[in-house]
Design a protein that fits this description.
heterodimer; A: about 240 residues; alpha+beta; Ribosomal Protein S8, Chain: A, domain 1; 8-stranded mixed beta sheet; two-stranded antiparallel sheet; 10 helices; 11 strands; about 45% helix; globular; B: about 550 residues; 20 helices; about 15% strand
């Protein structure tokens, strides 16, 4: 354990669950939050880094939900991490797309917007196509899209032309097929793309972790254990009797 | 799924030990002792090679001196008589050294990702010394003494599923499909500890008695099982794996339904009576100081004897008639015993169900469901949870938590002990009721998605309820937060699926039991096998 520690995926999952349980108690679906962080991590989207960055601000306020004039779902994240309310936001998107055929969600005033990629994948596993985009630095943005049932999202970096400089927040649209989305948001699909991660690489990376474990630094491991240990109760003579003699 | 009934289940032919032994005895398995480097006291190392025909594994054992004052079955113990691991892959000197450095530390160590199970066991000090003494003098031990405990070693923990750096269950399914049935690898390890305990006993007897010493007779060896001490650690598993448990119960019920349609021929009827008679003898040989368990065993024994007399006299025409008689006249304990006996008689007709015992523990939210639909779902599938009265002082007084001491699961009294703010989420009935109450105050036409956005604390229980409503058997029905909760019922339910039948409860929180008693030995591999080692009884020696 001098340079790092190798965890099984179940260990990593258990630690994260406890860490989220330590943060939220029973006030959140910490199993879903754990799955979200792991999904991001295994897709090379810095799940653990986002978690460590977000943790000091968790739990954050429940964001404001409203409806736009065109029926879009609008969420004001009140400056909190999107990690906390990504799952419940995606519930709204999937619910509306399933009942209305198509749904659009805009999230503003939030941190860690890249977490939306997991929502794209969740839509695809729910039988919907989805696309999302969010700004990066200096006139560029990311776009992620995935057809219903496809194994992993396509993720690209795009150069933003004039007129899109002030684009803020994150947008995700769910519909029966990518074609339906392209019809409404054709600009985003025409921007110059670069830096795609092929889905077979993502799968291979996951299998590597499964086969050989997940390596992390001792510092990160200790930090995670520190959060997870919050669920533990102090031992006393009385508590020892609570497990048998 | 009433816990009072689940807590009376008996093992049956699809219990995991039975599945494992069929696999060992029925295929291309070979178990060979490759290393046995022990000193005169039996301390040192041993390696058993397990060849399943499809894969190869090593069972690596470290046998240690243990100060008798340090011998404890609790999770919080820090030293044991033996520690071991089951691992895949090559056993190089470097790897063996790493295992030597880590396996004896158990929870405090780290093992590699080709290790599948990590375990430890303690001697039954009484039985080990006694048997060694007898064998070293050239005598076989008195069966009365053996029968009192039933084992020489007992396991105090059997860890799998990726703990301490080991292979994840998903990896076991992918890389080691020959061990990819529920708890197959864990059961194999218990079987191998039993084998090691028998060979260790013979070894130490020879070191002590020299030429005078004799090995333990094969018949007695088969009667010796592997002890097990199971505590609260096993209980949360049943609550956190509702789909798996529901599936296990569903398979058992499917098997029973299938068997009840079978014709009752005279030969099968007499096989049923003979197995019932054996079960009565098995029950009469169980030795426990626990008064409640003794009463349960005595009741089951008496009711079984009455059933045998009645069946012999009336010669019922079909199996359903027997079950109707039992349902009218017998306690749950006896009813479940009769179910197991019937399943034994027709075991070959249910073996195919073994492949269906596994399932994935995932719960999908249906966000578009309206709250009125969700309310109806809860009223239909969680009526038991809504019917429970949680207003009494004692109804929510128990809380389950993990101690800072090795994360040992423990129970506390909410009214008397600190720590309830960190309780584990195991009171599913109460969580369902609280969620239902919140939904009832909301707008019926809102969607689940809108509701959980405002109430994220309800998201987990809602997706769990939506998923379990589609399962065959649903949730275990019990208020686990009640002051009078009996965790031992949860333990017994799970242990019955492992194949454990002899229960010796030490309190309402933990139980000693015996595994693999009556099972074949590794020397029996290749010999004819009838899979009839259920309800083990003392051999005639």
């Amino acid at each position: 354990m001098s340079s790092g520690v190798t965890l099984s995926l179940n260990e990593l999952r258990a630690l994260l669950r406890k860490a989220f349980e330590g943060i939220y108690g029973h006030d959140h679906d910490w199993n879903a939050l754990t799955d979200l962080v792991l999904w991001l991590e295994f897709h090379d989207l810095d799940g653990l880094k986002i978690f460590f960055d977000a943790e000091p601000g968790l739990p954050c306020d429940i964001p404001n939900l409203s409806e736009g004039d065109n029926g879009d779902i609008l969420i004001d994240g009140k400056g909190g991490s999107f990690l906390q309310f990504n799952v419940t936001s995606c519930d709204l998107l999937v619910s509306k797309a399933k009942t209305a055929g198509q749904a659009v969600l805009h999230v503003n005033n939030t941190k860690h917007v890249q977490v939306i990629t997991a929502s794209v994948a969740r839509c695809a596993s729910s039988g919907l196509a989805a696309a999302a985009w969010w700004p990066s630095e200096e006139n560029s943005a990311y776009i992620a899209f995935q057809e219903a049932g496809a194994r992993a999202p396509n993720l690209f970096r795009v150069s933003l032309p004039a007129g899109f400089e002030n684009y803020e927040g994150v947008t995700i649209i769910a519909a029966p097929s990518i074609k339906d989305i392209q019809t409404r948001y054709q600009d985003w699909f025409q921007f110059q793309k670069s830096g795609q991660t092929p889905s077979n690489e993502i799968e291979e990376r996951y299998q590597q972790h499964l086969d050989h474990g997940f390596a992390m630094s001792v510092d990160d491991y200790k930090r995670l254990c520190h959060y997870a240990d919050r669920v533990l109760v102090e031992a006393t003579e009385q508590s020892r009797r609570g497990a048998g003699e | 799924m009433d816990l009072n009934r689940l807590g009376t289940l008996y093992p049956y032919p699809l219990s995991f030990m039975r599945c494992l032994v069929r696999q060992i005895m029925g295929g291309d398995w070979n178990i060979t002792r490759r290393k046995f480097e022990l000193d005169a006291n039996g301390f040192g190392e041993a390696v058993y090679e397990v060849d399943t025909g499809a894969g190869g594994y090593n069972f690596v054992v470290f046998s240690h001196y243990l100060d008798p004052d340090s011998r404890s079955d609790r999770v919080i113990a820090e030293a044991w008589d033996m520690t071991a691991t089951l691992c895949a892959g090559e056993l190089t000197q470097e790897r063996l050294q790493s295992l030597r450095d880590n396996v004896p530390l158990q929870e405090a160590g780290r093992v590699d990702s080709d290790c599948i199970v990590l375990t430890r066991a303690n001697k039954s000090a009484r039985n080990f010394s006694y048997v060694v003494e007898c064998l070293s003098r050239g005598e076989q031990p008195d069966l009365d003494v053996i029968a009192k405990v039933g084992y020489i070693f007992r396991t105090t923990a059997v860890y799998g599923s990726g703990k301490f750096g080991m292979a994840d269950w998903e990896k076991v399914c992918w890389r080691y499909p020959d061990l990819a049935s529920p708890f197959m690898a864990e059961m194999l390890v218990c079987f191998l500890i039993r084998q090691f305990s028998l060979e260790l006993t013979d070894w130490v007897a020879v070191q002590k008695g020299g030429d005078k010493a004799v090995p333990l007779s094969e018949d007695i060896k088969r009667y010796v099982g592997i002890g097990n001490a199971t505590g609260l650690g096993m209980a949360p598993y049943l609550i956190t794996h509702p789909r798996l448990i529901s599936n296990w119960i569903h398979i058992r019920e499917t098997a029973l339904r299938r068997v009840l349609k079978k014709e009752m021929t005279p030969a099968l009827f007499y096989e049923f009576l003979a197995t019932a008679q054996k079960a009565v003898q098995h029950l009469s040989e169980i030795d426990t100081d626990n008064e409640d368990q003794n009463t349960l065993n005595a009741t089951a024994r008496n009711q079984m004897s009455s059933l045998i007399s009645w069946a012999d006299a009336t010669q019922p025409e079909n199996w359903q008639t027997i079950l109707e008689y039992v349902a009218e006249t017998c306690a749950f304990e006896t009813q479940e015993l009769v179910n197991s006996i019937l399943l034994e008689v027709f075991r070959e007709d249910i073996y195919d169900l073994q492949s269906e015992l596994g399932t994935k523990e995932v719960y999908h939210l249906i966000p578009e469901m309206t709250l009125s639909e969700l309310k109806a779902l809860i009223e239909t599938h969680y009526d038991w949870a809504l019917a429970e009265d949680y207003s009494g002082k004692s109804c929510l007084d128990t809380f389950w938590y993990r101690s800072e001491e090795k994360q040992e699961p423990r129970l506390g009294r909410r009214s008397q002990e600190p720590g309830s703010e960190k309780e584990m989420l195991l009171g599913m009935g109460y969580a369902a009721k609280c969620c239902y109450d919140l939904i009832s105050k909301d707008n019926d036409r809102r969607s689940v998605a809108e509701f959980v956005f405002d109430h994220p604390k309800c998201r987990y229980i809602i997706r769990r309820m939506q998923t379990m409503a589609q399962s065959q058997c649903g949730e275990i029905r019990a208020n686990l937060l009640d002051a009078d909760v009996l965790p031992i019922q949860l333990l017994r339910c799970k242990l019955s699926f492992f194949g454990v039948g002899k229960f010796d409860p030490r309190s309402k929180l933990w139980v000693r039991n015996t595994m693999f008693q009556g099972a074949p030995l590794t020397t029996d591999i290749g010999a004819p096998f009838k899979d009839d080692w259920c309800f083990p009884v003392r051999p005639d020696v």
